Amino acid sequence: MAFLDTLRQWDEAISCVDRQDLKQALEIFLSIEDPNSKISFNVGCLQLVEQKLDAAEKAFDFSISKDEHLAVAFFQRAITFYKKQRFQESVSDFQLALKALRGNQLIDYKALGLRYKLYACEVLHNMALAEAHLGEWERAQKNLVKALEYKTDNKLNILDRAMQSILKQNIFKAVEFPSTALFRPNKYYVAQLDKKDYLGKAKVVASVIPQDHFSGFAPLQPQFEKGPDTPKEPEVLRALEGEAHIVRYEFLPETSDELAVVPGNIVFVLQKGSDNWASVVFNGRKGLVPYNYLERLEMSLGAKQKQEESPSREPPSRPERKQGVGSTDDIFLSAVVRSNSSSADVEPKEAQPADKSCIVKVYYTFNVAVRVTSDCTYSMLVEKMSKKLKRASSSFTLSFTSEANSVMSKDTDMVSVWSRTRNRRLKLWCHIKELQDTEMIFVARHSYESSNPEDLTFNKGDTITLISKVNQDWLEGYCEGNTGIFPASFVEQLSINQ
Question: Which of 17, 59, 444, 497 fits a disulfide with 44 by CB distance 3.0 to 4.6 angstroms?
Fold first, then answer.
């Protein structure tokens, strides 16, 4: 059925409700093919008035399946279960209605075409009533106490009477939905159902420009010689004055004041009303959106977004890397490259060292350089490299060549080592030893590839040796000759050998 036909029948059914002809209204609603969530809700309400509880339950089921965030539909289905004396299911639906309120005191559905406000205190009131029928008096009392936290002045008497009944273990009356309060179609769309003559009585006009022979419905207009004095303020700059939120659920407008948004849109909340509606700006357009459809977003574009785990998931926010300034142990990174770096690597720029100082450049997964004195022992050199590489000194060796055929040790004659320096610079290679028994091994659950040179790239199923823990989201590890940081959520621990 076309949208216009549905809209026409919807409006006709509401007219019947206004005339108190509820039976005819129900027949019209039931004749609509593929009804939306609001129409199904209306059907359920009219079935409830007719005491057709099974049919009402099915209608509310369909309404919720179309919009699982419609709190008032959960509330009405809970009332239906209550009337059918299925109290446990009634409690469950009241809990879902309260969850859909998302901690708000109320939801005003006026902007959606329903003249009704759903109060959190009324939801808790009815939940306590259903629990009282189940004999759970203590839980019912707790819910009424919680309802007092959401109370408004006009609801205080209802809660007080309910609390007195609970203390005496007496059953009280439920708060029910108004029988004729139904979702109404958008007035703007209904007004478009009538045919209109937008052209009217057209008349030919002439151009105001001299010597212009144009004639027609729209004359040419003289142009400005220059533009306005000041450019118009960009909408995006004004939008940034609001608070950034991300849209979690699709919202289709029902009135001209509302704004259509879909999941993933970034909107800026200018004002949040007490009725759970927010005034937002999106793409230069301003309108109303239900606030419970939004989630606050950090302004940092690197903030992580929680998604379901899948091979294409986004990594968490990158950790901040501490870099020393002015220390003689600073790491001089000319470029971060893989372990097969050629000898043509650009030497790092350094201040002129002292007479006995020497810069040792070590080829590793990335190139690092440390400043030491020419009388430095092997143990002191290894200790410095251990701190820079964040690896145990027993997990690597140093050599004069990339083939590791001239490995240095504590017995190495360091005098001959320092004699290899050229212009107070020395090149060495770092080699990772075989896995030790105490090392922690992880297996990659998802492939990870990053353009950031300090990251560790790996494929799903690869094994990774833990080097250190950066923070709760990032680890540092070693895989197939490469070392770097990676998201902890992309791997799982394989084993810890004792």
Answer: 59
